[in-house]
Amino acid sequence: MDHEPTLPPTLQNVIDQTTLKWIFCGGKGGVGKTTTSCSLAIQLAQVRESVLLISTDPAHNLSDAFGQKFGKDATKVNGFDNLYAMEIDPSSSLQEMVEQSQDNGMMGSMVQDLAFTIPGVDEAMGFAEIMKHVKSMQYSVIVFDTAPTGHTLRFLSFPSVLEKALGKLSALGGRIGPMLSQISSMMGGQPGLQDDLFGKLEGMREVINEVNTQFKDPEKTTFICVCISEFLSLYETERLVQELTTYEIDTHNIVINQLLFPKQDSNCEHCRVRTAMQQKYLNEAYELYDEFFHLIKLPLLTEEVRGPEKLKEFSKMLVEPYKPSE
Q: Is 122 considered catalytic here?
């Protein structure tokens, strides 16, 4: 299993890059994204002033990983002074906006119709809400534990989706705003409500714009791909790398998780066959990525990594390459 890597096989490069503000961990479901993002956040907490870990996966695994309940407000993680976590469901914030607007009669139902006519806008608005929320908090670095790959890529395309949608809406607002005002007051709606709505959307657009610029800056943002050494996972990682390149988002670290390291004298047939398969895809990963990526190899453990102490222990393997015991 020895292969001399071109770049150091650790995430030390991420920890040393003090300009980073946003770090995403993503990959297929079940490859260990949450364990990786929690471990990385623990390592960052040792060198940064304050770290916020956010889960945008509706399955909300952070609570399970740390054995502590997290919600939509940042909560300090037990056993740490400067590590905070929160779990957000991106689609729920649009629901809130719609519910608020329902109190406003006819204009409210218009908001609702508008909100749902733009594809992806519900999630995009959720994204904008998260960003607004996060920007108002002063954290040195923010680590995202993202939903499985497909969702992640949508999540990262939101800035452009929302910007287009809001551009259209703003233009529309300028043209039909005065007319809406008259209709609304004739029908007993509150005056100035649509200004309020367009103002809200415009505010969102500004946040999105700024975040979008930061996401494309490799000094501020990087994406860590997490995979396992199997065909589907590697294929998905390659797709992810291609898409990130399209979105101009920096990525130069791949965590390869759940590797088997059977002992020399092991006579387990299952382990031998599986190790050979993993080795085959590991070689492919090196061929594809070795020149430009840090490839971090993590072992398959005999027990689950749950609770702060086990996560702390596991997190050391992100900065010191794992050496199997002979």
A: no
